[in-house]
Amino acid sequence: MVLSFLRRRSWRAFTLVELLVVIAIIGILIALLLPAVQAAREAARRSQCSNNIKQLALGMLNYEDTYKQLPPGSMGTSPTGCAWNSNTGTCNSAGPIYHMLPFIEQQGLWDQIWSPITAGGVNYPPGGPWVNWGGYPPWAVRITTVLCPSDGKAFQPHPNNTSVATVSYCFSRGDLINNIVGPGTALRGPFTSGRCVKLAELTDGTSNTIGISEQAVYSGVPTDLKGSYCMNLGDGLADNPGQVMAFKGAGNTLTCTVADSHRRRGEGWMSGFPMTTGFNTVIPPNGVLASQSKGEWTWGVYPPQSYHPGGVNGGMMDGSVRFVSETIDCGNLALPQYNRQTPVVKQSPYGVWGAMGSMNGGEARSDG
Questions:
Q1: CA atoms 212, 216, 220, 223: torsion sign
Q2: Which of 40, 111, 213, 290 lies at a CB distance of 3.0 to 4.6 Å from 230, suitable for a disulfide?
Q3: What is the pLDDT of residues 260-293, one digit of tens each?
Q4: Are 89 and 78 in contact (CB under 8 A)?
């Protein structure tokens, strides 16, 4: 009787076919869920990136509240004879983040920079040496607030200079192309060289003017679209910026002639050079970067770039943050910048995107 009961309760084992079917179903479910999980993770990273830009925007406005002017696009110490290898000063090459350090919870780093430092047998003055100088300890300090979590390269040593901490964010020079490097240049964006802009000069409105956006850190591969750029395009770049669009190849690559040095995009947070930490609102987001010549001191078209699908985060001058689509209207990219046109017009020739960058062009167009 007991044996009969046990025989009736015995379990039949799974067949090989049944096991394979179950494994296949599990595989299908994982394949269906994986994109959703990846999308959720990217949404979280994009939200964190947006928050980083928000913190920079608040730091910018707190700086303005203290000094009654915005941080400069490029400025600093510049004693007589200052040069990139003199170790006597920054030579007016320090950028907005450098000047905003006390306002983004980096007072300790600011105090360190403004104290005399001896490292590697070199005596560095208060204020620091040339930006991107690899032997200066403060330049190697990584600031997580200025790194986008979607860009894995931002958290690694920069291929062009492993001793300098990277940066994922850049500051607007407006819709200008060839007037964005040296002091005394025309004012179209809120960050310029050798001068601090006042909020009252943003006559198009702070909510209509973009100030901060993203950049992809150079990956170490010159033919990568993101983080690298076409070089030596000459002065004609400012007369027909749209020519660079032909250099965008398949699979996010560049098809232009590229060099193997001075790849400085994202190197590093202390720099004020447009090549390194600036952008202009001409070529659409995630478009081709291109320079007039070689070197961080050169001008060119530097659109913001990110690894977020479809566009970039942008910080407006009122402190708000919005997502800017890579399909935003850019007007006529075959036209020269505004002050090279005949007759000269003040409004941006580069559509909604150009209007967002120009702070005093007489436009109030910020949709995109």
A1: negative
A2: 290
A3: 567 889 999 999 999 999 999 999 999 999 999 8
A4: yes
Compute the chain's Rg from CA coordinates.
Answer: 25
pLDDT value of residue 37: 64
Note whether 98 and 165 are within 8 A (CB): no
Give yes or no for residue 364 having a pLDDT over 70. Answer: no
CA 338 vs CA 270, 342, 349, 354, 361: distances in Å = 30, 9, 6, 10, 10
Residue 12 confidence (pLDDT) = 65
What one-character-per-residue DSSP string does 177-210 give?
SSSSSSTT----SS-BBTBPPPGGG-TT-GGG-E
Does residue 51 surpass a pLDDT of 90?
yes
**161 within 8 A of 221, measured Cβ to Cβ:** no
**Which of 71, 345, 336, 66 lies closest to 192, judged by CA?**
71
| pLDDT tens digit sequence for 335-357 | 999 888 878 878 999 999 999 99
Instruction: Give the span between the Cα atoms of 43 and 77, in whole angstroms.
Output: 41
CB 116 within 8 A of CB 126: yes
pLDDT of residue 36: 67
Rounded CA separation 10/160 (Å): 69
Query: Which residues, 6+ apart, have CB-to-CB distance to 91 below 8 Å?
Result: 76, 77, 78, 82, 83, 84, 130
CA dist 30 and 337 (Å) reads: 51
User: Which helix (H) or strand (E) element contains residue 169?
Assistant: strand 169-172
Residue indicated by tokens 């190197």:
267
Q: How confident is the model at residue 11 (pLDDT cuts 50, 70, 90)?
A: low
Instruction: Check the CA dihedral 52-55-60-61 and report its sign.
Output: positive
Q: Which two tokens stand for residue 172?
A: 């607007």
- Of 35-44, 160-169, 305-314, 324-333, least confident by mean pLDDT is 35-44
**How many Å apart are CA 197 and CA 144, to the nearest integer?**
27
Average pLDDT over residues 291-310: 92
The torsion angles phi and psi of 279, rounded to 5 degrees, stand at -145, 155
Q: How far is the C-alpha of 181 from the C-alpha of 173, rounded, in Å? A: 9
